Amino acid sequence: xYLETILVLSKKNAYVRSIDIATELxxxxxxxxxxxxxxxxxxxxxxxxxxxxxxxxxxxxxxETMYERHTLITNWLVRLGVDKDTATEDACRxxxxxxxxxxxxxxxxxxxxxxx
Length: 116
Known about the structure:
Number of domains: 2
Order of helices and strands: HHHEEHHH
Largest sheet: 2 strands, antiparallel
Strand content: 5-15%
Shape: elongated
Structural class: mainly alpha
Number of strands: 2
C-alpha cells in the first residue's frame, strides 16, 4: 500500500515526502516513519538528504503491479454496479490477497468484455 501511494503521489507531485504519505493515507507520522525505514532497508525506496522519497526499480515494479490491480478491480466493480467508494475500498483489500492467476483471469475477462 505504501509503495502504491508513493507511485500515485509521484505522478501528481514533483517530489514525495513522508508527510505527504501520512496525509494521503490518513496515518500518523511515526507509523509512516517506521514503514519508510522498512522499505528503505528492503531496497524498495531511497530517501535523499531533503527527505524526498523515490521508488527503486524493484519498488516501482511492485507499486505498478499493485496500482494496476487496484485500478482494474475498482473499475470492474464499478461496471458491475458497485458504488465507487465501496469499489475502491474493496479493490484495496482484494489487490493484496488475489493470486496472480485469478487476477490474470479477471483482467482477460475485463478486456474481452470491453471490446464486445
